[in-house]
Design a protein that fits this description.
Blueprint: E1 16-17, E2 23-24, H1 27-45, H2 52-73
Antiparallel strand pairs: 1-2
Helix pairs in contact: 1-2
Amino acid sequence: MSDKPAERIGNKIPIRTDRNGRAWIKASAVTHLLRAIASGCRDFADNPDYDLRSAAAAIDIEADAIECRAIMQTR
């Protein structure tokens, strides 16, 4: 196991800007994100030290990362 923290999936998702300056992500990126969330939930389910609150906190962190990048993309 590495001492280096894992890269956040929210930082890997490509964010695009449309003609009106709105940020969006491709459906394939959404699918990748949802599969990463499902994988994380399975990992939490197998570890008695984690619960649904831990999973929710991890999802919030990913959402924050995506939101920050979308804001930066549209400025």
